[in-house]
Design goal:
The protein is of the alpha+beta class and 488 residues long. 23% of the residues lie in helices and 30% in strands. The chain has three domains: 33-172, Sandwich (Immunoglobulin-like); 182-323, Cupredoxins -  blue copper proteins (Immunoglobulin-like, Sandwich); 341-479, Orthogonal Bundle (Cytochrome Bc1 Complex, Chain D, domain 2).
């Protein structure tokens, strides 16, 4: 009797399991099917508005391709979709995700994908090992909301990741994040070339540098050029900004910071918990964060890794340009520039080494002192003797770039550079520079004339006629500067 009872129980249990599996399979088959919108950086797919799960088809192609990691520097990237990072994937919690991975036939190596959003062995890596010219597919349930890294996990894993094989997948929660004006996609990565930063030509991967964790480049979105100058992120004063930030690594932790902004909200580690009023947020290798802030006044805001030598010497810099009016109640710009005894040591040293320019001598009593203006506004970057910083800030001493413009018929470009700053590649004395010169605000036309007269007649610079207040005023009018200045 007991044996027959046990048999009945087992039979009923088996029938229940079969029924549950059939019901689940039927439910999965009845889900609406949609193809995911996968966007290249810095773009983000639109928020998902449906309120029920779907079967979401995601298609990614692995492409090994050369690209520019810095100005004049080529590197062969391994990519998901042809970009570093790979395409941004957006699904909803509860979705069934059908992921298709294709390995382009021209590639040389096998690849796979490990998505940190996957619950299952290897995050999908074991199911997607794909040779060149082949496709793989697997399916997973998006169980946990949040922002997750995905990356290649083919051996040697560190090398595949170091060559750019990473991206972000956002599993949107049942209650979407509040709407904002712009969402951007930014991922930091560290790269290891066999030559130092900035060496021109095609650069090869260095496994030893990667093992030693000594990157040649630390960049956002695969290149020191990805979001600067004409490629800068664009928004307007008053816009609310959300940035989905990742760190592909493979080695370094990111200290993500936006110069001139405070994060109103940070979803730290890409999860659901938040912190308010944050200046800098840590993002581990293989991790993420979501940051939100409002642009309260105009200008160019710099996205950086606040391990600052990575920013200014290895490329971890991007720009967000906010168009619109300056809100003086929030940020006034420079309101005062006058002598301070603490600066007298610098000014005195400059006076001893450099005679007063002719223009300053003939300007009369009370004329601005170009040496002091240079010491207060320019010497930190260009250095006290105008020698600049090698590979970072160009020299002013015996500088062909400067003097070609100082001896031209139309010299308004130099006025423009002082008032509005300059970004992008320039060549000075045969060396290339691609840093950022920020605008110098608060200078009157007489101040600008005085500092230009100083730098164009010092450190061996000769041949320029004196700048006048009238010439600077004409230059300001020509370029339509919005920088503002005190009345001369």
């Amino acid at each position: 009797m007991q044996h027959r009872s046990l048999t009945k129980i087992l039979a009923r249990s088996l029938a229940l399991v079969i029924w549950m599996l059939a019901t689940t399979a039927g439910a999965e088959e009845s889900l609406p099917v949609e193809k995911a919108i996968v966007t290249a950086p810095p773009n983000v797919p639109p928020p998902i508005t449906r309120t029920t799960p779907a079967r979401v088809v995601v298609e990614l192609e692995v492409i090994e391709k050369p690209g520019m990691i810095a100005d004049g520097v080529e590197y062969t990237f391994w990519t998901f979709g042809g970009t570093v990072p790979g395409g941004f994937i957006r699904v909803r919690v509860g979705d069934t995700v059908e992921l298709h991975l294709a390995n382009h036939p021209d590639n040389k190596l096998p690849h796979n994908i490990d998505l940190h959003a996957v619950t299952g062995p290897g995050g999908g890596a074991a199911s997607t090992f794909t040779a060149p010219g082949h496709k793989s597919r697997f399916t997973f349930k998006a169980l946990n909301p949040g922002l997750y890294i995905y990356h290649c996990a083919t051996a040697p894993v560190g090398m595949h990741v170091a060559n750019g094989m990473y991206g972000l997948i956002y599993v949107q929660s049942e209650k979407p994040l509040p709407p904002v004006d712009h969402e951007f996609y930014v991922v930091q990565g560290d790269f290891y070339t066999d030559q130092p930063f900035g060496v021109k030509g095609h650069q090869a991967f260095s496994m030893q540098r990667a093992i030693d964790e000594h990157p040649s480049y630390v960049v956002f979105n695969g290149s020191a050029l990805s979001m600067v100058g004409d490629q800068a992120l664009q928004a307007k004063v008053g816009d609310r900004i959300r940035i989905f930030v990742g760190n592909g690594g493979p080695n370094l932790v990111s200290s993500f910071h936006v110069i001139g902004e405070i994060f109103d909200t940070v979803y730290f580690e890409g999860g659901q918990k938040t912190q308010n009023d944050v200046q800098t947020t840590l993002i581990p290798a293989g991790g993420s964060a979501i940051v939100e802030f409002k642009l309260d006044t105009n200008g160019t805001y710099l996205l950086v890794d606040h391990s600052l030598l990575r920013t200014f010497n290895k490329g971890a810099l991007a720009m967000l340009k906010a168009e619109g009016e300056q809100v003086a109640a929030i940020y006034s710009g420079k309101e005062l520039d006058e002598m301070y005894l603490g600066d007298e040591a610098v000014a005195s040293a400059l006076r001893k080494k450099h005679p007063t320019p002719l223009a300053a001598k003939t300007a009369g009593a009370g004329a601005p002192d170009g040496r002091t203006l240079f010491a207060n506004n320019c010497a930190m970057c260009h250095q006290a003797e105008g020698q600049g910083l090698e590979g970072v800030f160009p020299p002013l001493a015996k500088a062909d770039y400067l003097m070609a413009r100082a001896t031209a018929d139309d010299r308004s470009e130099l006025v423009d550079i002082i008032l509005n700053g300059k970004t992008g590649r320039i060549t000075v004395n045969g060396n290339d520079y691609n840093a950022v010169m920020t605008p110098v605000s608060g200078l009157s036309d007489a101040d600008i004339a005085a500092v230009l007269n100083f730098v164009t007649t010092s450190w061996g610079n000769t041949g320029a006629r004196p700048f006048t207040t009238e010439e600077v005023a004409q230059g300001r009018a020509k370029i339509g500067s919005k920088a503002g200045a005190a009345t001369p």
